[in-house]
Amino acid sequence: MTRADYRAFRIIPTRWMDNDAYGHVNNVVYYSWFDTAVNAWLIEQGLLDIQNGNPIGLVVETGCRYHRSVAFPERVEAHLRIAKLGTSSVRWEVGLFTAGHDGPAAEGHFVHVYVDRVTRRPSPLPDAWRQALMPLVVAQDGAAP
Amino acid sequence: MTRADYRAFRIIPTRWMDNDAYGHVNNVVYYSWFDTAVNAWLIEQGLLDIQNGNPIGLVVETGCRYHRSVAFPERVEAHLRIAKLGTSSVRWEVGLFTAGHDGPAAEGHFVHVYVDRVTRRPSPLPDAWRQALMPLVVAQDGAAP
Amino acid sequence: MTRADYRAFRIIPTRWMDNDAYGHVNNVVYYSWFDTAVNAWLIEQGLLDIQNGNPIGLVVETGCRYHRSVAFPERVEAHLRIAKLGTSSVRWEVGLFTAGHDGPAAEGHFVHVYVDRVTRRPSPLPDAWRQALMPLVVAQDGAAP
Amino acid sequence: MTRADYRAFRIIPTRWMDNDAYGHVNNVVYYSWFDTAVNAWLIEQGLLDIQNGNPIGLVVETGCRYHRSVAFPERVEAHLRIAKLGTSSVRWEVGLFTAGHDGPAAEGHFVHVYVDRVTRRPSPLPDAWRQALMPLVVAQDGAAP
Predict the structure, then answer these.
(1) Which H or E run contains A30?
(2) Residues 105-124 of D with CB under 8 A from A
(3) ipTM over 0.90
(4) Per-domain residue ranges of chain D
(5) Model's pTM, two decimal places?
(6) From the list D20, D28, D29, which residue is nearest C19 (CB)?
(7) Are C111 and C62 in contact (CB under 8 A)?
(8) Using 50, 70 and 90 to split pLDDT, how confident is the model at B139?
(9) Are B51 and C19 within 8 A, CB to CB?
């Protein structure tokens, strides 16, 4: 995978406390970047409204493979794509890249189910969401569909 | 200050990622323990209800002096007392103790203003709160009032 | 899966800031519990020494499926087992349980590669480690081997 | 205080999990921004080297007053100045600003003692550090000295 295999990205600076006792960013922190990259993208597209909007996205599965360590004060590029756009769920894939490398430092996935804010039951993605998400969808082999 | 200068306490185990690149708990994490100790106490007394209750507590000032480092997997005792019980605000003081030491590893304070959940304007502490908080109040010199 | 499918456990209290804007523990935080449960177990067995010991464990892959939300101030039981004990790597599986439920709130895995502290290259698990880890190993179908 | 009362700044984007159950950034997180802004500045000036350098900075006191809430996905400007440049300690002051406001969302301080990496005893600031830090020093009344 390279940056070209993804469809959008966001710069995320590391923070001092991201580093753990071994002097590199703790494995847990990578997930906070996935969460941030996906939700920020949704908010900036005018789709997600944390306080009042409907639907909201709940996370049902996540995973990450770590290829290379990252350390404060590096900046991370979180690159996004969608591997599966379901009726009410989306499988996001996130590649974390750092300066000077073609390959990702880590590759993660993040499955969001979009639910009604009050009932917290899955609700079909609104058309506006589906249209905004479509350009991020890639075929399983990494090529655009 | 020793444990006897406080009025209630809570055990808080450290977590792996609390440690930072220098191999001890990062200064930021101590504040998460203050927050946890104070809010857990309020919840367990039946006062605070995060989801639905009224009032809720917002933080307007915090501070901490660090005397001795703490490291995972140590367990911390967060000891609580109230230095000032105002109409709608409370100055909590928290001493963080670890096994084998009389003196605190750190001493912090935490000023909560209790506000209406919706308007987020200060509201006088309900009587039930005031009665529950009274036993934690100490005089400025550390003696019970 | 129930608690009986695991071989060791650790109590982990939630913290106030574990909750996110939707009022339950953020998906990221679960991974800090995996890290904590595994490393604390290794330390308490006298195997891992964060500051000076050899080997140390680096994380190469993690994952989690979320079944039920958890919220502060709940306490979590992190139950551990080992699904694969390799030459220098271990696949840990962690079930997170809460009071009143037989099934886990979340199930995760956590692949540690044990490396030399200085070179950070994989090193075969010492015999003392292997012997201590054996009782946690389960067969792939969840039964003890 | 306004941005003009400070001497350097750094942009810090918020992260999804910075928000707590009340829908704004948790009070604890502000301290991670202080730590990040100060240490990143020291690293970028070629002064601090986390892995190998000498001295390193340990935190002995911190504090924060919160004036206005901040929420993901806002970006924060962490503005820095030095209120006291001692022999081996520095009192950093940090103002956190957000778009559209002249006044800070929060004002904090952060006292670093610079210590020998191995002995962890205070060591006088090297000349190179002192010269680099001087331009950030303000007089107590907020005016440049």
Answers:
(1) helix A29-44
(2) none
(3) yes
(4) 3-136
(5) 0.95
(6) D20
(7) yes
(8) confident
(9) no
